[in-house]
Design brief:
The protein is α/β, with parallel strands linked by helices and 365 residues long. It has one domain (3-364): 3-Layer(aba) Sandwich (Arginase, Chain A), CATH 3.40.800. The chain has ten helices and ten strands. The strands form two sheets. Strands 2-1-5-10-9-6-7-8 form an eight-stranded parallel sheet, with helices on both faces. Helix 7 (236-254) runs parallel beside helix 8 (280-298). It is globular and about 50 Å long. The model has no long low-confidence stretch (mean pLDDT 97). The structure holds ligand 6DK and zinc ion. Zinc ion binds next to loops.
Length: 365
């Protein structure tokens, strides 16, 4: 098993500043400056864990390159690219007021989208069996005409549009396990029956008023957008059940040529934003199920693109669990926390009801 791996030090140099993301710092109002939640720490520590354990030596390192204007414009409007370009010398905001970036931020965002492209190319060309792109800034909230929710460019959507021009890949399933709704990916592929956009997320969280089970795509794309909003407090039992009853059947019906996982780790039990309870074991088992399905459906072609995850001490163990599965590691790393035995990790009735609601829509794939 060969696993491609994308990381670049510049991903840690994307500067989101000191405006606490949910409340702009304002000493006059008693709101003390704080590092932005989307800061380099969690992702840098994922990379450092791979180095320190030596897992990185089993991965095939892929060098990211910047996404070009032409590639960005496959998804975004000229207006959005112009806005980012204009602010690149000074720093600015991606468009929604909560997507700050420092000087040169667009260059780093290009390297994140380009990292996703590189990883997709490597998988589709058979240079690697699967790949993990540990990119930053994240991408799944960015919509064609704006950045949003810490996302400057729609990394996954750009990568998919780019490789669909150059490689033989007709159908792609995107499985978004970030705790927030993958609204950007959904918007880009809303009318596209060749991209299944499936998002598991915390019910009515971010973006506001987004990610409802009733959002299903339109035109030829109707049925190929699938949302599973889960109640806050969902743990391993609920997510594994959702994977068995919704994700795997959706993949089997859709028969993708490539599976992309929007790998956010903010549904972890220690996350400062998400209110879910996942553990490294949960991420490992979800990854195992998706990889096994990929082996049956698309020669094992899985691409993970990192999204959110804000518990700097815990995210490395969660991401490491996924990367171990991709790389075929048989002796898993022993993570030091023990949240697997917390109460209500098992599936609860209201979680079951949420899963049922999405399960009922699988027939339209
Ligand atoms: N703002 C992400 O993890 C980003 O999905 C999450 C962005 C959350 C923004 C913070 C937030 C609100 C809430 C309610 C109303 C307005 C604004 F993209 C990823 F990084 F992956 O909750
Ligand atoms: Zn998120």
């Amino acid at each position: 098993m060969t696993t491609g791996y994308v990381y670049h030090e510049l991903y840690g140099w994307h500067d989101t500043g000191t405006h606490a993301s949910l409340a702009p710092a304002d000493p006059r109002r008693g709101i003390q400056p704080f590092h932005h939640l989307e800061n380099p720490e969690a992702k840098r520590r994922v990379h450092e864990l791979l180095v320190v354990t030596g897992l990185i030596d089993r991965l095939t390192r892929l060098t990211p390159r910047p996404a070009t204007d032409e590639e960005i414009l496959l998804v975004h409007t000229p207006g959005h690219l112009a806005r980012l370009t204009k602010a690149n010398d000074t720093g600015g905001d991606g468009g929604d007021g909560s997507t700050p970036f420092g000087r040169g931020g667009l260059d780093i965002a290009r390297l994140a989208a380009g990292g996703a492209i590189r990883a997709a190319e490597a998988v589709l060309e058979g240079k690697v069996d699967n790949a993990y792109a540990l990119v930053r800034p994240p991408g799944h909230h960015a919509v064609p005409d704006s950045g949003m929710g810490f996302c400057m460019l729609a990394n996954i959507a750009i990568a998919l549009r780019a490789v669909r021009r150059t490689h033989n890949v007709a159908r792609v399933a995107v499985v978004d396990i970030d705790v927030h709704h993958g609204n950007g990916t959904q918007t880009v592929f809303w009318e596209d029956p060749n991209v299944l956009a499936l998002s598991l997320h915390q019910d009515r969280f971010f973006p506001p008023n987004s990610g409802f089970v009733t959002e299903r795509g339109a035109g030829a794309g109707f049925g190929y957008t699938l949302n599973l909003p889960l109640p806050p407090g969902t743990g391993t039992g609920g997510y594994l059940e959702a994977t068995r009853r919704v994700v795997l059947p959706a993949l089997r019906r859709f028969k993708p040529d490539l599976i992309v996982v929007a790998a956010g780790f903010d549904a972890n039990a220690l996350d400062p934003l998400g209110r879910m309870m996942l553990t490294p074991r949960a991420y490992r088992e979800m990854a195992r199920m998706v990889l096994d399905a990929a082996a049956d459906l698309c020669d094992g072609r899985v691409l993970c693109v990192h999204e959110g995850g804000y518990a700097a001490a815990y995210v490395p163990f969660c991401a490491n669990a996924v990367i171990e599965v991709l790389a075929g590691v048989t002796e898993p790393f022993r993570e030091p926390f023990s949240f697997d035995n917390m109460g209500q990790q098992e599936l609860q009735p209201h979680q079951d009801a949420a899963i049922k609601a999405t399960e009922a829509l699988l027939g339209d794939i």
